Amino acid sequence: MPHGRISVRRRLLAMLMTLFAVGLGALYLLVRGYAHQTADTTYDQLLRASVLSMADSLQLVQGEWQMDMPYAALALLEQAPRDRVFYRVSTGGGVLISGYADLPSLPGRADTDGAGDSPQLYTAAYQGEPVRIAWMERKIAGPRNAESAVIQVAQTREARNALAENILWQGTLALIGFTAAALALAYWGLQRSLSPIQRIERELAARNASDLHPIAAPVPEELDTLVHSLDGFMARLADNLDTLRLFIAEAAHQLRTPLAALHAQMEVALDEEDPAEQRRSLAAVLRNAEKLSRLVNQLLSDASVIHRSNVKQFQPVNVADLLSQAVHDTVPQADPQPDVRLHLPDAATTRPPVVLGDSLMLREAFKNLIDNALRHGANNDGHIDIRLDADGGDWRIAVSDLGPGIPPALANTAFERFARGPNPRAPGAGLGLSIIKRVVDVHQGKLNLSNRVGGGLDAVITLPAAPHDA
Question: Which of 52, 116, 214, 226 is most buried, taking the most CB atoms under 10 A from its CB?
Fold first, then answer.
């Protein structure tokens, strides 16, 4: 078995067996006490009956004590094979009338069981063995004063111990049988209780790899949360797989055309003998290679954003630093260099522009936003403004250009993947705005596109500030 693996069945069985063992021990002690009490009560009643029978046979005749010994009173006590019975009858002054003179004398009244004229009981040792003794005082009116006699009957404990052991043995057998039946019933109940898990296991094992629909097997209430979580996990996995399949299909579709064009232009360039025509063909190859490179980069960026949006490992990030990096990575450094103006808040007078998010995703969104402005909104006489400002408890990132703005026909589909306008000014894959939209939504922000008065587009992202910074 792998290290650290646990078994619910074994744990429950161990707990049940421990519980039954403790219960069996407690019941055994109770049965043992009951057995000894029952044996003592039974033989104590026989001792009392023997004492009463002997007391009734005791008479005072002309001042002399006489007793017609009722041997039947002792015969019942002697039925035990190894038990012995002793008796003693003496006057109130201690003079022996009949029986064993060395029988243990009476204890103090405080140590005896019972009270009044009924027989009383105590335990003592006689001839090296423990004995149970019943006694009572018999009073008879004499010629001058009332005379009294003391009757004692003693019995060894073999019979009562044997009776207690017999009761204990029978009770123990009953307890063992009850425990075995209870454990079998508990095991059966445990198997029945775990059967829903086995049904879920069989259902999942019978599925193919692409079957991620919710579990249909009925489950008890205690497993509802687990099954609900598992269904949610499979639903998320199905969404991810659908997204992956869609991405692969769209990527294959988008890459097929530029690759075919690149292949055709390379063949044309190889067939050209005129250096000028060959140069023009190579220039076309270079443009298609750049277009293909941009498409591949955007596809990889889109895939990275999709993956990281599912992971959501957010931490505090500085928006000003991310904007500066995005400008540096996006704006060409070679001439003619576009006029891009970055406006950041004064660090000395405002709080740090910190949001809770994924720095790579946010940087990709800012790069795509700036790249869209450069490709579709820049002109020779205009410039691009990038501004970061505080907006209440949020941070507002605005990218403004002087281009043609967004066509009305594209207003409702601008954020869809691979969506492009009817007459795009520059080649592209139509993934930039969809990437930005996904990143903003994951960060619980807002994205707004609006045409500027006099021409141009304002693209505004609003992100909530980090909780400790709000």
Answer: 52
Instruction: Domain 209-311: state its class.
Output: mainly alpha
Angle, in degrees to the nearest 10, between helices 158-206 and 8-57:
160
Closest-CA residue to 243 (of 311, 308, 307): 307
CB atoms within 10 A of CB 151: 26
Sheet holding 85-91, edge to edge: 96-99, 85-91, 146-156, 129-141, 120-126
- As its CATH architecture, domain 314-470 has 2-Layer Sandwich (3.30)
Q: From CA 461, how far away is CA 286, in angstroms rounded?
A: 35
pLDDT tens across 54-68, in order?
A: 888 888 777 778 777
Question: Would you call 465 helix, strand, or coil by DSSP?
Answer: strand
Judge whether 383 and 339 are in contact, CB under 8 Å: yes
Measured CA to CA in angstroms, residue 69 lies from 19, 56, 59, 95, 301 at distances of 57, 10, 11, 18, 117
What is the pTM for the complete model shown? 0.51
Dihedral sign computed on CA atoms, order 431, 301, 362, 334: negative
Radius of gyration, CA atoms only, the chain: 52
